[in-house]
Amino acid sequence: MKIVVTGAVGHIGSRVIRDLGLQFPGSEIVLIDNMMTQRFPSIFNLPAIARYSFIEADVTSTDLDPIFKNADAVIHLAAITDAAGSFDKAEQLEANNYQATARVAEACVRMGTRLITLSSTSVYGTQNEVVAEDCSPEELKPQSPYALTKLREEELVSQLCATQGLKAVCCRFGTIFGASPGMRFHTAVNKFCWQAAMGQPITVWSTAYDQKRPYLDLFDASRAFAFIIRNDQFDGRIYNVLTHNSTVRDIVNAIREFVPDLQVTFVDNKIMNQLSYEVSCERFKSRGFTFAGDLRRGVGETIALLKNCRS
Questions:
Q1: CATH class of 2-174+218-241
Q2: Is residue 31 within 8 Å of residue 55, measured between CB atoms?
Q3: What pLDDT score was predicted for residue 272?
Q4: Using an 8 Å Cβ cutoff, are 4 and 66 in contact?
Q5: CA distance linking residue 302 with residue 280, whole number of Å
């Protein structure tokens, strides 16, 4: 089996490339990344059970056809991913992320390669308590330029599935938490873990403490990719993929188990999406996938990596 992973050194990719080797022993796993983030340790000590090759390249300009040739699946992770930071670089993000997805998807069409592409549960802007993939257009109110671009990428992939025979699946991931060699600390759970480990107070928007949002353990995210490939789940549909719908209070309580002296500071400026809603992942579960991640485990794993950083 040959699997290509774009954006291979990022927070998600650096975990996935290792797990793919364990899930599909003997496979050829091709890693593509432009190394803009210089996360070189992401490709240190890859499992010997698989055959890895690394290509330093940008998917928006590289000839992808020879790379995708004879690939059984492409996992497309290459993107600028900071939703909160996307407001002041909307044009750059749109050009990079949309163009990357378009070129990857079109190359998959030409090469007859199956595609897993990522979207985000941040495309939902509903005030309803629970939202699912077949929600009304009125409930799709992306709260950032990042999320807006994700909707456009979804539409592109769906169109190619319908008109060009692309075999693909689109996963709307909840906010990622959990450790990886290339992890970042800009999203809610990881940022809070970093602040707690550094002895800093966690800052929370005052009205957001009990608002629910979808979160995805990186452990489950990686398992989901293997599940889709193994079960040929390339049906052109969109799937919500998340471990928990949790509140900020839930996150704080989980962190406090590992950092008992944690301090929480409430502020009036907006640091998290102000909407509260739960996302249903029953569609993905109905395909036979069982979520096994856990907020407490992910928090504990992350804080354990930083346990010796405080005197």
A1: alpha beta
A2: yes
A3: 45
A4: no
A5: 26
Residues 6+ apart with CB under 8 A from 87: 144, 145
| The token pair that represents 158 in the structure block | 């769906």
- Counting as low any pLDDT under 70, the low residues of the chain are 81-91, 94, 126-127, 269-275, 310-311
Q: Residue 149 is encoded by which pair of tokens?
A: 């671009």
2-174+218-241 and 177-213+244-305: same fold? no
CA distance 303 to 48: 28
Give the predicted TM-score (pTM) of the model: 0.92
pLDDT, tens digit, 9 for 90 and up, residues 132-154: 999 888 788 787 888 889 999 99
Please tell us whether the domain made up of 177-213+244-305 is placed in CATH 3.90.25.10: yes
C-alpha closest to that of 112 among 147, 160, 146: 160
> What token pair was written down for 265?
């500071």
The conformational region for residue 213 under phi > 0 = left, psi -120 to 50 = alpha, else beta, is beta
Helix (H, G, I), strand (E, B) or coil at 268: coil
- pLDDT at residue 275, as a whole number: 66
Cα separation of 309 and 200, whole Å?
13
Q: Within 10 A of 246 (CB to CB), how many other CB atoms are there? A: 23
> How confident is the model at residue 209, as a pLDDT?
86
What's the DSSP call for residue 201?
Answer: P
Q: CA 27, CA 232: separation in Å to the nearest integer?
A: 16
- Sorted by where each begins, the domain ranges of the chain are 2-174+218-241, 177-213+244-305
pLDDT in tens, 277-296: 899 999 999 999 999 999 99
